[in-house]
TrEMBL record, chain A:
Keywords: Activator, Nucleus, Transcription, Transcription regulation
Role, per record: Component of the Mediator complex, a coactivator involved in the regulated transcription of nearly all RNA polymerase II-dependent genes. Mediator functions as a bridge to convey information from gene-specific regulatory proteins to the basal RNA polymerase II transcription machinery. Mediator is recruited to promoters by direct interactions with regulatory proteins and serves as a scaffold for the assembly of a functional preinitiation complex with RNA polymerase II and the general transcription factors.
Record-level GO cellular component terms: mediator complex
Protein source organism: Zopfia rhizophila CBS 207.26
Subcellular location: Nucleus
Domain of life: Eukaryota
Molecular function per GO: transcription coregulator activity
Region Disordered, residue ranges: 198-219
Name of encoding gene: MED8
Chief location category: nucleus
GO BP field: regulation of transcription by RNA polymerase II
Protein name: Mediator of RNA polymerase II transcription subunit 8
TrEMBL record, chain B:
Region feature Disordered, mapped onto this chain: 43-63, 86-110
Annotated family: Belongs to the Mediator complex subunit 18 family.
UniProt keywords, alphabetically: Activator, Nucleus, Transcription, Transcription regulation
Name assigned to this protein: Mediator of RNA polymerase II transcription subunit 18
Coiled-coil intervals, chain numbering: none
Native species: Zopfia rhizophila CBS 207.26
GO BP terms in the entry: regulation of transcription by RNA polymerase II; termination of RNA polymerase II transcription
């Protein structure tokens, strides 16, 4: 919310701001524009489909785009935190408050609307199930939790107090580790089987990396991996190929 | 002679287990099977499908339909040599005393013939829940089987080895086997090797080393429905009995197609004549 406020401050009270402030606010505006556009697109898409949700691939695509815009926004926010936290919005006398009281209202509002609050709480509760609070974000996050809510590491302590924290089975690091390495493991298994079929070279490197981390989760994962390996150990030649070879003497 | 067939696959890791289970089911010790299969096909190239049909338009308005005779199909044939592990273990040069290569027939000593000629027809189209195909096996008592095949208008295609165990359960011949072949480029030389390679040098065709379970009942006469039905029933009973251990199923009949496929002729560079047919 504060960036929206800042933005309006740039438009209405540009003369009191230093060029640097304006530059930061402009960057914010540029980052916000695609976010708004992408959200609108997604909204249209959801509206356009009859039975609720768009297809998974398109959902996946829009969510990854949104994720990208959000994280670039976040990087702007954090790198310019010094300037942004000092800025406060106020209406100048030239602002047509009578006509645009709605915008003014929204800009000057210090608390979130109840439904926005509910979103934030919901997301934070969800995040609280597996995230450890990242301390350095707590101070900065004062007014911009709405945007930060999708980032795993960010969480205001005061917001959490009223929310019941639930115990999840995996913590943030474990989840991160799992997802970081899922691809590698998959490749590992594939390489193994390829190797048995006589293609490719030995994977090698991953082994050392894996053995560095020792926690229970890791053991579980490794157990699963072992099982997977065993099942995949022998990708049998299709029966048809063998039968064909036996009857014609040549590979099909 | 007709064969009723069902096939299943066994991963290498379960081979031992399945072998024991089958020994229990059939109440007999597994009988070791080692065979060398030499595949031949006719020297004549198959004709193009549909080549007997009249092509292009005709100006005759009404013409009596001339009976069009399809060209006869050409089939792959196999020579099967029954081997034992001792045959492999002989140090290089498996020559008999008189210097003739082992390839020559089993001789006249009255023991089991070493060589036989096998012909399998394409499985028929009936849907009985099992595969039905005609199969003719002719034992070769003496002489040089390879020369015999060549004289019969055939050419050598390739050879492979079949290794496994055989059980007999009631009327069902159960063969748990896998295909082995020599490493390296498939030999394109015309005669099959007179010298057997070392057994250890043979590699399974399936890189995972998996086995194939073949359950077969031989029926002499397909025209007797009672016998045929009894055979099908017995095979299905066996399939149900072994369900969960090995899934037996009916493969697509065309996978066992032994007809020589027509291949459009390629222009062979003049430097290498007479190679196109072997491929």
């Amino acid at each position: 919310m504060s960036q929206a406020v800042g933005q309006s401050a740039a438009q209405t009270a540009g003369q009191t701001l230093s060029p640097e402030d304006i530059k930061v606010l402009e960057t914010l505006r540029i980052r916000l524009a695609p976010l708004v556009r992408n959200l609108e697109l997604l909204q249209q898409e959801v509206g356009a489909t009859q039975d609720g949700l768009p297809t998974w691939p398109s959902l996946q695509k829009s969510s990854s785009i949104l994720n990208q815009t959000l994280s670039s926004l976040l990087s702007v926010l954090t790198s310019n935190a010094d300037i942004l936290t000092t800025l406060t919005p106020y209406p100048t006398s030239a602002f047509p408050a009578g006509q645009h009281w709605g915008i003014l209202d929204a800009l000057l509002q210090k608390k979130h609307l109840p439904d926005v609050d509910k979103w934030i709480n919901d997301r934070l509760r969800k995040a609280g199930e597996f995230c450890a609070g990242a301390e350095e974000f707590v101070d900065l996050s004062g007014g911009k939790k709405k945007d930060d809510k999708d980032e795993e590491g960010v969480k205001g302590k005061e917001e959490i107090e009223g929310v019941k924290r639930m115990k999840g089975t995996l913590n943030e690091e474990e989840i991160y580790y799992l997802w970081e390495n899922a691809g590698t493991w998959g490749v590992d298994v594939i390489q193994k089987s390829l190797q048995e079929m006589g293609y490719g070279k030995s994977p090698g490197e991953e082994e050392g990396e894996e053995s560095d981390v020792k926690d229970e989760e890791m053991k579980d994962v490794e157990g699963v991996k072992e099982m997977g390996k065993k099942e995949l150990e022998a990708p049998m030649m299709p029966l048809g190929t063998v039968l064909k070879f036996m009857s014609t003497g040549t590979m099909p | 002679m007709h064969e009723l067939l069902l096939f299943g696959q066994v991963p290498r890791s379960r081979h031992e287990q399945v072998l024991k289970i089958l020994a229990g089911v059939a109440a007999m010790q597994p009988h070791r099977v080692l065979e060398r299969h030499v595949v031949y096909k006719p020297q004549r190239e198959p004709e193009e499908p549909g080549s007997h049909l009249r092509r292009g338009g005709t100006q005759a308005v009404t013409q009596k339909q001339i009976k069009q005779v399809a060209p006869k199909d050409l089939y792959f044939t196999q020579l099967v040599q029954t081997l034992s592990e001792d045959d492999f273990n002989q140090p290089n040069g498996q020559m008999q005393e008189n210097g003739e290569p082992q390839l020559a027939g089993g001789g006249d000593s009255g023991v089991e013939p070493k060589w036989s000629e096998q012909f399998h027809d394409v499985p028929d189209t009936s849907d009985r829940g099992v595969l039905v195909r005609m199969s003719i096996t002719t034992d070769i008592m003496s002489g040089d089987p390879h020369a015999y095949m060549i004289e019969g208008g055939n050419q050598f295609v390739s050879e492979y080895y079949q290794e496994g165990h055989r059980f007999v359960h009631e009327n069902i011949v159960i063969l748990l086997h896998r295909v082995l072949q020599e490493l390296g480029v498939r030999p394109l030389e015309t005669p099959p090797k007179p010298i057997l390679p070392a057994f250890a040098a043979l590699q399974p065709l399936d890189p995972s080393g998996g086995y194939i379970l073949q359950a077969m009942i031989r029926v002499l006469d397909l025209n007797n429905p009672t016998i045929l039905d009894a055979g099908v029933e017995e095979l299905k009973r066996f399939k149900a009995q072994i369900k969960g251990c090995v899934e037996l199923d009916v493969p697509d009949r065309l996978l066992l197609d032994t007809r020589v496929k027509y291949k459009p002729k390629q222009v062979v560079p003049p430097s290498k004549p007479a190679q196109a047919g072997v491929r």
